[in-house]
Amino acid sequence: MYLSWGAVFRKCGVTLRECCYKKGRHYGAICFTVRMAESSPLTVFVRNVAGEEDMTVSLYINGKLRNMKRSKSEPLKKTLHRIGLSYAEKKTEGKKKQKTHVVPNDTKIKVTREGADVLEETPNCEAWVGQNSLLIGTVEYSITVNSPTVISVSIPPCCMAGYPMIPEYQLEFAESCEWEWFNGNEKLSSQQVFLPKDNHIGCSLTVKCIPISKDGKQGISMEVVAPKIVSGPATCLSDSRYQYTSVVKDPNKFRILSYNILADIYASEPYSRDVLYPYCKPEALEIAYRQCLLGKELPSYNADILCLQEVGARCYSSYLNPLMEHHGYQGCFQRKYGQVPEGEAVFFQASKLILVKAFAVSLSEFLQNDCSNTDFFQQLKTSKCLIDSLLTKHSLCQVVLLQPKSRTDVLLAVANTHLISHPLADHLRLIQTELCLRYLSKVMSESSVDQSVEILPIFCGDFNSCPEFAVYEYMLQGYIDYSHSDWLTHKHYEQRMAEKREQKEAKRNGQCVGDMDDCLFQQQTAMEQRVAGCTKPTSEFDDFLGVALHHKHSFINATGLPNYTNYTSGFSGTLDYIFIDKRKFTVEQVVPFPSHQDVVKHLALPSIEHPSDHVAIICDVVLN
Fold it and tell me: Angle at which helices 384-391 and 426-447 pack, to 10 degrees?
C-alpha cells in the first residue's frame, strides 16, 4: 500500500493541482520553506544590471537579510537613511516590531573609499561599487557587485522514497552551483539529484544551493525545505524488464531505446483527463508525479542511446537532463517549431559515444525550402489541400551524429521523429517519413568527409502508424507505388478537417452541434478507420493521385512486432519502431514487454504505475 499524492494534499485541504499553480507557479514546482543562508554576514551584495533603472542593495542587519530596491540615480544619503531605519528596528518580546525613525546618534552609517567618505549626494550607481566599503558604526562591510546569486530554488511536490528528487533552480551571475542535502543536521549528499530511501519516509529534507561564479567565488546560498517524503508505488510496470537490462560492457554492442513519454501539455488538459484517460487517477497525470516514475525507469534500462518523443521543454531542462547527466549521459533536445512546448530528445552514454554534431529540421520547412526537395514539392503542390495540411504541421526530424569510442571507422547517424497522429493522415505520415529519410540522407552525405569512415543510420520514433500501413512497408521495402491505398486517405482526411471547420464556425454562430471526436474515431481498429473514412461525398476536394517513393537504405525493424506499443482504453497498436541497417547490425536481444496482465492492471495506460500511454521499445544490437 502507498499513499497517493492526491491523498497527501487532500489531507492538507488542498489539491495537487492547486498546489502546482499556487501564486502563479506551475509545472508542480513549489518552494516550501525557503531561507537564505547567512554565508557572508559582512558583505553588501549589489545587483546592478545595465539597462535597468533600479538596483538592489542587500545585506544582513541584526541577523536578517535586507533587500532594498533603489533607483540608480537616487542620492546615496537616501539609501543610507533606509539602512539606518532597518538597523534601528527592535523587536520587543510580546509586542509588535517597532521602528525608530531616526538613526541613533552614536551610529554612523556611511560609504567609504580608501578611508575617505563618499559624498552623500553621489548617485547610488557610483557609490555602491566594489572598491568601496559600508561602515555601520565600527562594523565594516565589503561591497560586491553582481555576485553569484540564486534567484529561486524549488522542489516538485512529489517526493517519494525510491524515486529521484531534483530541485529546479534559477541563477544569476553564476557559472554553476553546488548542492548539499540534509536530514536535520545529517548531511546526505552533495549532488543535485537525490534518491530518498525508505528510512527517509516522514522526514522533511533540506537542500542547499550554493552559486559559483566563473572564477570560483561563492555567492549567497539558498535553502529549501521539501515536503515530507512518502511511500511511492511498490511496483511499476517496467520493473519486470530490468532483469534484461544490465549494463552493456561490450564496446561494439549498443542498447537502443525509443519511447514516447507523454508530454505534460497533452496529459494535463481537461480533454485528456475526461476523454483520453478517464481511467487514470488525476494525480497520476501530473508531470510532477510522472517524471518521478521516469526518473526511476529511464536510468534502469542502462541504454546506450535513448530516443524520446513528446519531451516537454521544461521537463527536459529541469528534470530529465540533470537526471541523465547524473547517470553519465549527454543529451540533445530539439523543441518543435511554432508555439508547441514539446519536442524530441536523444540521450547517449558518454562513456561509449562522443557527440560529433546534432542536427534538426522542421519537416514542413525542409519540404518547402530545401533545394533537394524542389521536384518532390512540385509533385505535392498539385493538391492545394495537401500542401496546406503539410505546411501547418509541426513535426520535426532530429539527427544526432555519434562516434563510438571503440571504433574510429564508424559514425552512427541516429534519427528521431514523431509523426502526425490523426487517424486518417496515413498519406501525410508517408510523406513525413519520406522527408525524414531525405533529411537523414542529407546529413549523412554532408558529414561524409572521410572515405575511411562509414556512417550507419539508426531511425527511431513514434511513427503513429501500425504495421499494416504504408509507412512500415516503405521503411522495410524501400518502395511505395503511387497507387498504394494509403494515398486514398487524402480525401477522407480533408473531408474530416472541413467538417470540423464547419462545426467550429457553427459554434461561433451560436448553433447547437454535436462534437466530432477524433478520439472516439480512434476506438475503431486502424484498418477499420481507413475503410470507414467519412460519410459525406468527397468529390468537392481536389484529386491527388499519389507519388511513387523509394529510398536506398536497408532497414530492418530491430524490435519486431509486439501486440502494441501504445495502449489506452480507446486504442491499442504498434506505433513505435527502431529501424537499423541490416547489413551492418545484428540484433542480439529485444527486451521483453511487460505482461498484458500487468498492462491492464489499472485498465490501461498511463496509470499510477506507468507514466505514459506508450511502452518503451528496447533492443541490443551488435555492430558487425
Answer: 60
AA identity, residue 116:
A
**Strand 576-581 and strand 305-312: pairing?**
unpaired
Q: What is the dihedral of CA 60, 62, 63, 66, to 10 degrees?
A: -40
Residue-wise pLDDT tens digits, 535-565:
444 445 556 778 999 999 999 999 999 999 9
H or E segment to which residue 391 belongs: helix 384-391
Domain ranges of the chain: 5-38+149-231, 49-142, 237-623
Cα separation, 467 vs 561, in Å, equals: 8
- What CATH topology corresponds to 49-142? Ubiquitin-like (UB roll) (3.10.20)
Q: State which fold the 5-38+149-231 domain adopts.
A: Immunoglobulin-like (2.60.40)
pLDDT tens for each residue of 596-614: 999 999 999 999 999 999 9
User: Any idea what the Cα angle at residue 336 is, between residues 298 and 471, rounded to 5°?
Assistant: 80
Contacts of 36 (CB under 8 A, 6+ apart): 65, 220, 221, 222, 223
Burial of 81 by CB count in 10 Å (0-12 exposed, 13-18 middle, 19+ buried)? middle
CATH 3.40.367.20 fits 237-623, yes or no: no
